[in-house]
Design a protein that fits this description.
136 residues; alpha+beta; single chain
């Protein structure tokens, strides 16, 4: 089962799961996860930003000592890229939690409808059997 929400959020969750029938019970096993592309892009973004941050540190602190203030941007910009990337991930996951709640509620409603439908069918079958017995 796969459910998507119609807004654009790369970090929204997908529910990957199965329903297993165990006698008179149904067991639901699954997990929420983000897409592989989003994971790979987030790792790439943060890795590149960290790499540029390290290069910026090397540029700003020369071997003869002292700090070159004019090259401070080489440290600040990658640092801000890391912060922005981490905040974007966290914000997307926070929004995606609403999707998780909706999917859990939807699964509960569908399960409830299935159980009610099952009970109604059983009651109808019992009623039909009684009517058949009474006619005989």
């Amino acid at each position: 089962m796969l459910y998507t929400v119609p807004y654009r959020n790369s970090w929204h969750s997908y529910y990957h799961g199965n329903f297993y029938h165990l006698g008179n019970e149904t067991q639901i096993e699954g997990y929420f996860d983000i897409s592989l592309f989003t994971k790979a892009f987030s790792i790439f973004w943060l890795s590149v930003a960290f790499l540029f941050f390290l290069v910026g540190i090397i540029i700003i602190v020369p071997s003869e000592g002292g700090i070159r203030i004019e090259n401070l941007g080489f440290v600040i910009v990658p640092f801000m890229m890391m912060i922005l990337g981490a905040l974007a991930c966290r914000y997307g996951i926070w929004i995606g939690e609403q999707t998780q709640k909706y999917v859990i509620i939807w699964i509960g409603e569908q399960t409830q409808k299935y159980v009610i439908d099952f009970i109604e069918r059983k009651l109808d079958a019992i009623q039909n059997n009684r009517e058949a017995v009474e006619r005989d």
